[in-house]
Design a protein that fits this description.
Order of helices and strands: HHHHHHH
Organism: Tagetes erecta
Protein name: Reverse transcriptase zinc-binding domain-containing protein
Number of helices: 7
Oligomer: single chain
Number of domains: 1
InterPro entries: RVT-Znf (IPR026960)
Strand content: under 5%
Radius of gyration: 22 Å
Length: 144
């Protein structure tokens, strides 16, 4: 009776359900090395779309062509590239015009990236204040 009530909570050898879940998830779930940063300045759906596109997990024509559902996956605008998520969002002529206009509107230096994960790292490369970096990052997520 001399022990304090609930003293077993402070025991370092105590094993709880959180520890069990962490072990099980590390064994079952795939590990994603994603550098994606969730922004509180944009809607959740923009964060989810940005996260999925940075992992190249956006459904598009190239996935359908790989499964032989459609014969080809070329972009109707360019007709020269495979229509995957990075092409649609960044590399298509139409997308390049949007990103170019955005850089002029935000008074940013010209940038050229080939995938979404690199695009979302760009604001950290510029000598801007942390507040401006957050704004540019939120604009990039919203533009995707």
């Amino acid at each position: 009776m001399g022990a304090a009530p609930n003293s077993w909570f402070n025991d370092p050898s105590f094993f709880d359900t959180k520890d069990a879940r962490t072990i099980i998830e590390s064994l079952i779930l795939p590990a994603y090395d994603s550098d994606f940063v969730w922004s509180s300045w944009v809607l959740v759906k923009f964060n989810v779309f940005g996260w999925r596109s940075s992992l190249d997990r956006i459904p598009c024509k190239s996935g359908l062509a790989k499964r032989n559902i459609i014969p080809d996956s070329f972009c109707q605008s360019c007709i020269s590239m495979e229509k995957d998520a990075n092409h649609i969002l960044l590399n298509c002529q139409f997308a390049r015009r949007i990103w170019s206009a955005l850089s002029v509107w935000c008074k940013l230096p010209v940038f050229d990236v080939t995938n979404v994960s690199d695009l979302l790292k760009v604001p950290n490369l510029w000598p801007l204040s942390p507040e401006k970096k957050k704004v540019i990052y939120a604009i990039f997520l919203s533009t995707l």
